[in-house]
Hints:
Distance between the termini: 43 Å
Bound molecules: zinc ion
InterPro entries: MULE_transposase_dom (IPR018289), Znf_PMZ (IPR006564), Znf_SWIM (IPR007527)
Region (Disordered): 439-479
Protein name: Protein FAR1-RELATED SEQUENCE 5-like
Domain SWIM-type: 317-354
Keywords: Metal-binding, Zinc, Zinc-finger
Strand order of the largest sheet: 1-2-5-4-3-6-7
Largest sheet: 7 strands, mixed
Amino acid sequence: MAYLLGKQQNNPSFFVEYTQDEHERLDKLFWCDGQSRNDYKAFGHVLAFDTTYKCNAYRKPFVVLVGVNHNRKTVVFGCALIVDEKTESFVWVLNQMIKAGEGFKPLTVITDGDRAMACAIKEVLPEARHRLCLWHLMRNIQGHGQNGFSSGFMTCVNKCHTIEDFEVAWKELITHHKVEGEKWVEELYDSREKWSEAHMRGYFFGGLYEIITRMNFPIDVLSNFFLLFLAIEQRRFDDREDEYKNIHEFPHVPKGDCFRDLQIAAANVYTKASFMVVKREMKRESNYVVMNCDQPEKGKKKDIVTYHIRDVRTKAKFVAVHDDTHKSMYCCCLKLESIGYPCRHMFAVMKYKGMKEIPPGCIVQRWLKLAKANYAKDPTDENKEDDNSRETIAARRAHLSYILKPIIDIAVRSADTYTELKEMFGKLTLSVKEKLGGGCNSDTKEKKPLLGIGNPEVVTSQKGLSKKRKTPLKPKGGR
Length: 479
Ligand SMILES: [Zn+2]
C-alpha cells in the first residue's frame, strides 16, 4: 500500500483508491498508472473483467481489467483487490475504472459468467453489452464430458448469420448429442444472447472473446504485486517494439494485386497487426461478386447507392450501401460495427467501383497507428509555458518518457549505440542543469504523509484458491 501511495505522490497520473473496514483495515483497493489510464481511454471500448485469481497473501479476489490495443495485444487497464465477490464490490471496481478514465465507459464487458459481476455491469453500465468468456464456456462444456459437443457449439457461436440459422444449428447440435433437457444445456441456451454472434451482431467486441488465454500471466506473478508490475512493463516493452515497427516497417504489397492501391492506403494508416486483418478481408473478397446496384430514385440523393452481393460458394446474399457524401459504407453483416474493420463485402464494392482508398467512415481510430496520439499530447501545446505546477511537470515527464522510450529500447540492442546514447544524455543533462542554474528540485509540492492502513483480513475460506474455478460458468437465467 505504501508502495502504491508513494508512486501516486511521485506521479499524479498514478491512480490509487481504497476503502477501509470498521477496524481501519484495507477493504478494497484499485490502482492503475498513467499509461494504463491512457490505454483505457484509447482502447477501453471492450473491457474484460477477470476475478479468477486468489493467490495473493490475503487470499482475496484479485481483479485484473484488460483490453486489446491497436497492435491487437492485451493491455492491462487496472488492478483491484476486493474483499469479496459481491455485486457492491464489483460496482466499486467498475466505478474506480471509470473515474480513472475520466468518465470513459466501455461499450462491452466480457466476464467469466459470475452473477454478481453481471448485476454490477447492469447497475454501472446499463447501456453496455455483456459477453461471456468463450474459454470459460468451453471449459464448462468439457466439464460435462462433452468434448465432441465443442465443435458444433463453435458453429453456433460464430458461424450463424441470423437468429433463425442459430436456432436450426442449436437444435441439430443437441439432437445429435442427445443432451436435450439437460440442465447445463438449458442454462447455456438461456445465456445465448451473451455468447452467440447471431444475437450480438453489431455490438463492438474488437475480436476479444476470451479473458484468461489472452492474459496468460503466470500464477506466481499474480501473487506478487512487484512481479506483476514487472510483467506489465515487459508487455509494454513488446508493445514499444510493435510501435517501432509500425513507424519504420512497411508491409509488402505485391505488384499486380487488384487491391494494391487500397492496401498501400491501408498500410499507411493501420498498425501492422490491424493491416493483416484488413488484408485478410480483402483476400476473402474473391468469394463474392457484386450482382447489381439500386440506382437512387428520382429526387433522392444520387450519392447513396445500394449494392447486392452474392457469395459464389454458398449463394448467400448481402447488401452494402455506399454513402459518397459522408464517405462511409454500411453492410448488413455488421462486421464493421462488431470488430471495427471493413468487411469483405465492402471490399467487393470498393473493387467494383475502382476505389483507391478506404472511405474514412469505415476506418475506426482505435486500430490506427495514431490511436494513442490524443493521449500523448505535448503539454506545451496548451500554452502552459509559465505553468510549473506539479500536474504540468507530471504531464511533461510523461510526454518526454513517451518520446524517449523507443530510442532507449533501440539503443540498448548494441554496446556502441548504448554508449553513444549514454554520452549524449550525459551532455544533455549538463546543458539542462546549466540552464536551470543548478536547480533541479522542480517538484515543489509537499509530500503527503502515508496514511496508516492496517493489513486486510486474511480470507480463510477455501473457495477459489487456485486459478481454476470449481464452477466456471454460472450463466444468468432466461430472458
Ligand atoms: Zn459485410
